[in-house]
Amino acid sequence: MALPYQMRASMKYLIPLSAVMLLLAIMGFTGVPNVIWGPDSPVFTSTRQWTTGEHLLNWRLRNAPLWLYQGLHAAPAITWSLLMPLQHIDRFRQYWPTFHRRNGYVVLSISLLLSMTGYLMIGKRVAHTHENIFHFHNLSGLLPIGWPSFELSLICWGPIYLYSLFRTIQTAKTKDIATHRKWAVTHTISAYAISLERVSLGVIYIAGWALAIFPKNAVHRFLRIEDTISAKASLELDTFALANIMGFSIAIWWAVNEWRRAQQSTTSWGASFIAILVSRAKISSPTLALDLFANMYLAGTVKFGGGPVFIPLLRSCLVDPGWAYSRDFLIGFPGPISHFAVFLGAPALRTTSYPTFLGAFLGGLGIFFPGISLARQTR
Ligand code: HEM
């Protein structure tokens, strides 16, 4: 049976994003090497703490309660990053549904834990945030538009993250699988937004290293800052908050794209199906060619399961209207079942002025198009 595009979180993205989170979570235990991120590194190549100049991760390791930061956030983040991609492997879901269900509850519980401990870290002021959470950053007046603090944007993200988490669990419990899939993908993307934020920060660091090619004085003059730790830290706090906005924007674009694709495909799949059947019904004397195509399109769309279920369907579509002889049907029978449609489409047009190869072509197109379009959309 041809089905419309289903929302998915592709492994192409999940695996690298999980790898980024794993790396950061490990650094949450080991710290980062000061050689690269020391107090003297060029502006925008670090996220330095404004008094000591050390990288924020190293500062946090010395100041945050480790039971919270490592025990209830970084360590669960490692498990989450390993288990979440497994939820999106189709074969795992098909062959080990019990594993999918149990793993799902584990991952979603960790999602909840991560959000609770994440917000607790913000509340305990161990995150890299501005004193005033309602502050708008704009690189110390260098840019005309501003963006909210790291803290505020994370708080605004909370409803999306938590609502999608709640709907994923709710639809799993009611066994509304199609809706469950949508919310599971949405929640996954909303959680990977955290990883996209770290990737965005990486891009900012790369830009910082590119800027470091120019003479330091010129760069500082351009940025209107002194060569001090606190001046550099202040600008880096702006970019740290900017990384959040970049990560969340990519996640929104990703999720909206998935929702739109699923919506469009359902609409176009349903519309094409209805259009073909309605036009056949409405045309007072449809040509045999249109009739043949419509029958094959219907068969190609509704066939579900292996070849044998297809035999009576094809027989009623081709032999019953008198387009093919029962004998021809049996001759074609040992071949691959769907290819029948091509083989029998030719004799179907033998009594018309159309060339018989058109019948073969229409039979093949009608049977295979729904499946091919599905394969293309779900790639
Ligand atoms: C709403 C959900 C979440 C909130 C509010 C949150 C919040 C936070 C905060 C405030 C920090 C410290 C940030 C800083 O000062 O730099 C942090 C660190 C971290 N978070 Fe989360 N988090 C959430 C979800 C997640 C998820 C889903 C993961 C995924 C695996 C994750 C993995 C990590 C890791 C590995 C760290 C430590 C390394 C680092 O700071 O980059 N978090 N989180």
TrEMBL record:
Membrane-crossing segments per the record: 12-32, 66-83, 104-122, 142-166, 199-219, 239-256, 329-348, 354-375
Highest taxon of source: Eukaryota
Pfam families, sorted: Chromate_transp (PF02417)
Compartments reported by the entry: Cell membrane
Keywords, alphabetical: Cell membrane, Membrane, Transmembrane, Transmembrane helix
Membrane topology field: Multi-pass membrane protein
Family listed: Belongs to the chromate ion transporter (CHR) (TC 2.A.51) family.
Name this protein carries in UniProt: Integral membrane protein
